[in-house]
Sequence to fold (213 residues):
Amino acid sequence: MNTARIHPSAIVEDDVIIGAGSAVWDNAHIRHGAHLGEQCIVGGKTHVSYDVRIGDRVKINSFVFICPGVTIESGVMISAGTIFTNDRTPRATTPDLSTLRTSGPDEHTRRTLVREGATIGARCVIGCDITIGRFAMVGMGSVVTRSVPDFHLVMGHPARSAGYVCRCGNVLMRYPSDEPARRIITCTACGLAYSVDAGTVRELVPPVAALAG
Fold:
């Protein structure tokens, strides 16, 4: 039995799949062909457009706009007021102004992928043709115009790497830093360990206790 909860004021179009345990709150709008996984939350006044793919246990706060061409993996947090984009050369009409262009996917639509565990802060603007890496964290109000590596903390206009973050969300290291470019970092909050080599962050399994490498 599907235990999804949909607020009476929400609009869910035909051919939408909503997984068990998910909740769609007031005045949200989910367009046809969208697919939400299990145990997701879609906040009030949020818009999920055509054919968007969303994994399991994704938390989408209020007033979020997710356009066609976006795929969101499991465990992602998208904070209030975030806007995704999907066209680098947007126009309302054809060049001769005679025909209004469709709002649905077309040859101009570009893809965006948000990898598992990532967090996007409140009121961010996310460009297209990019990937936001695993467990990356985008600071509130950022404008993301290029891909974000795994476990990186980015912020600003446009967003730039400002350090590294753990799976648990704790900041592992901030820039600028006197630490060597190649080292092992252990999270002070949860004890998970990572190797860092010239900006590439990898999880160490099993965790190790060493602080330098």
Notes: The mean pLDDT is 93. The chain has two domains: 5-165, 178-213.
